[in-house]
Amino acid sequence: MARLALMSVSNKTGLIDLARSLVEEFDFELISSGGTAQALKDAGLPVKKVADYTGSPEILGGRVKTLHPRIHGGILARQDIPQDMTDLENNQIRPIDLVVVNLYPFEETIAKEGVTLTEAIEQIDIGGPAMLRAASKNFAHVTILCEPVQYDEYLQELRQHGGETSREFRQKCALKGFLHTSSYDRAIASYLGTQQPEALPQQYTLSGNQLQSLRYGENPHQSAAWYQTGTTPTGWAAATKLQGKELSYNNLVDLEAARRIIAEFTDRPAATIIKHTNPCGTAVGNAIAEAYQKAFKADPVSAFGGIVALNRPIDAATATELTKTFLECVVAPECEEEAKAILAAKSKVRVLILPDLSNGPKDTIKAIAGGFLVQAADDIVADTSQWQVVTERQPTVNELEELLFAWKVCKHVKSNAIVVSSDRTTLGVGAGQMNRVGSVKIALEQAGEKAKGAILASDGFFPFDDSVKTAAAAGITAIVQPGGSLRDQDSIKAANELGLVMVFTGVRHFLH
After folding, report:
1. Distance (Å, rounded) from C-alpha 333 to C-alpha 356?
2. pLDDT single digits (tens) 450-484
3. Hey, which bits of 247-369 come out as E strands?
4. Per-residue confidence (pLDDT) for residue 92, from 0 to 100
5. Taking a C-beta distance cutoff of 8 angstroms, is the pair 420, 427 a contact?
6. pTM (2 decimals)?
7. Is 276 a catalytic site residue?
8. Which of 60, 244, 431, 503 lies 20 to 30 Å from 209, alpha-carbon distance?
9. Catalytic residue status for 509
């Protein structure tokens, strides 16, 4: 008797070629339902509808099709146990040797703008996961294929093993089947969790499919891999690489840091250069080439081997500037054809196109021993109308704009963070020091004489007035900080005595 294959897929890529090989090469009979059955029939392939095979019509608008003993009995039967085979014979059920199933496009549906809860619920597959799990459980006798990329490997298995598959292959397919249903359920649970009033769910699940094996992690002795969440590529998984070597673990970490900074700037051309997740230069200009030049000149020594993010398409002038120094990566929303030809001269530089640089994760996750921490992303938008000028001297319009620029950059510098800027360009960055005074000194030392007339931003409050006095001595004219220290009055008094502007944002931006 011919072997039986059950086919029911939403993603019909490769379906017809697989089905034709099953019928013509390996004498399979096909049973299927809904759109899959129609696609097979349209291709001229013999197929029996599930409703005809089970003797039970599809009901509830198609919600119930494959939930039937003739389907699940055929999938779950242990073909080496006589009683199971007797049960099949007594109930006129045939063993099913192959199950080809993938699921309703739930994630694609919820990704659509304006999708309703009702629309999302209708894309929750029931029969598909049941068949996937049943076939995966019974991998000793059944092969489960849940992704089109498996089809060629399956056919090769049949050709190499006289029309059979190895247990090792079936077990590998079963693992993929369980991972597929696990990821699908996670997506549903996560979506429904967003419909609840709680900020974060009681159970938090995270899963992904390996997109790429990386050469190593932060260091050569650490293994690493890149995983994509969801079935539809987003973020860096959706980026286009125009040229350059494969991305490394550190490249991706730095690229994400660069993306977060550049996402702060939309109204004017902006550029940032990242080293070890901290900005060594960030600037805005009238054109993207000008913005990049300003960012590079802010710290040309540190810019060597840096990661560059631009918020405007790369044009020829910018590309020419980019080729003047060694860079690891460049990312922008687009790249003009002339610019591509110029960048090709530096073929090892990784050039990526990411049209939507503002689309980042809503949560941040950190692993700790025995678990992990989850917090909402620090994506609050700075609102100067909510800032409080706490000194006698009021900021000029230009000073307020400069304070906002520095504040946006400071948000993405490792704590304790200090940023000195002028002309919408960073002059000095103090990052990751164990005390704020240390960060202030580093930023001011880097700025040097350019600190005169510049402004200073701090990601946290000043616990003492010493940083204010140090800044004033270097020529800083205005300071922006969260406020909230028990000694705020000491800092305000010092600022008034030294003729500085001090603005409290009421928002802290620690970054660890």
Report:
1. 7
2. 999 999 999 999 988 999 999 999 999 999 999 99
3. 270-275, 278-284, 306-310, 327-332, 350-353, 363-368
4. 84
5. yes
6. 0.79
7. yes
8. 244
9. no
